[in-house]
Amino acid sequence: MKLIKTEEELKSLIAADEWMMDILKIVEKLQLPDSWICAGFIRSKVWDYLHEKEYRTPLADIDVIYFDKVNLSDNYEKQHEQELTKYLPDVPWSVKNQARMHVVNNSEPFNHLMMVLRIFQKCQQLLE
User: How many domains does the chain have?
Assistant: First the structure.
């Protein structure tokens, strides 16, 4: 079995994947405040590499999270999803402003995205 021992090895693995780099560049074009791609995007890549999979594990979606206290409209999130779909229509996008998730989840509001990421760390892999 192959191993990934350092952050640099992980970065190199991602940099060598044209599809992943395209995703990162497209999300960057949105210039969302404090945005991240999370969940299976990295986890599946690492899994496929470690287990020497010939084909990419299909992802249910590409999860993009960001933190914007100014615009809390879910319509804004949908606009971002539509814009991303223009670039890559075959990718199922999910864009969520974590500054409004307390309304959706009926919980205490987060003050910044790092609070969200601390929770995510328990169950997901993240990429800034």
Answer: 1
